[in-house]
Write a structure and sequence with these properties.
Elements lengths: L4 E6 L18 E6 L5 H19 L1
Antiparallel strand pairs: 1-2
Length: about 60
């Protein structure tokens, strides 16, 4: 895990495999989630969009 991404790994183990095999498992699935890069312009657009949505809800 870093400030800009997190990696998820799914490991699969089941009986009758020996418990000791858990130490050497390889991931069956790997997924990486990255934090979106928000620039000042994007942040301004997001705030304007949220404000417009809030105003529509107040009407």
């Amino acid at each position: 895990m870093t400030p800009n991404k997190v990696t998820f790994r799914l490991f699969m183990w089941r009986l009758p495999e020996p418990v000791s095999s858990v130490d050497t498992l390889q991931p069956a699935f790997v997924c990486e989630a990255r934090r979106p890069i928000i620039t000042a312009a994007t942040q301004t657009d997001l705030i304007a969009s949220e404000e417009a949505s809030y105003r529509r809800g107040q009407a």
